[in-house]
Amino acid sequence: MFDPREKIALFIDGANLYSAARSLGFDIDYKRLLAVFGRKGYLLRAYYYTALAEDQEFSTLRPLIDWLDYNGYTVVTKPLKEFYDQSGRRKVKGNMDIELVIDAMEIAEQVDHVVLFSGDGDFRRLAEAVQRKGKKVSVVSTLQTQPPMIADDLRRQADHFIELADLQSDIGRDPSERPTRERPTSETRHAPANI
């Protein structure tokens, strides 16, 4: 599936990967994830996409985002949008699809293999467009949840489907191993988190 001479770019839909791993009962160890894919070829870039709440300076995601940013990932964020639906219920929206698609299309000429960590069927057209440029596309998600977290049309479009559960021993950790997080003080606020 991977040629060690390939230049690889990872595109991680943070919310989607989190949901898939959580459904399978493990957390992602992002340091190990980089190491695993770094051994498969030349890892050119690893992008991580997530939306953040504007009003939460100390979001629960902030330590992870800071750690990723300091440790080899290109982190792409944007604020969550808050709105009220027709019945007056507060809703939040933080879709990062367009950012991921633009970055993937921009880097496609420089890589041989795109690895997409998402099961979102909206990315089928992205996979198809990258393949038209002569690049391989692998998709990492899971079929082992009910319902499956991977859209069938995305799985069919990909050159390779990688079952997330099969990667658990290489990139996973038990949720009980999560480091305890304290609210940062002014001295630690800008230091990278130990994730």
From TrEMBL:
Residues 168-195 are annotated as: Disordered. GO terms for molecular function: RNA nuclease activity. Residues 171-195 have a biased composition (Basic and acidic residues). InterPro entries: LabA (IPR047140), NYN (IPR021139). It holds the Pfam family NYN. This is NYN domain-containing protein. It comes from Acuticoccus mangrovi. Residues 7-164 form the NYN domain. Gene3D superfamilies: 5'-nuclease.
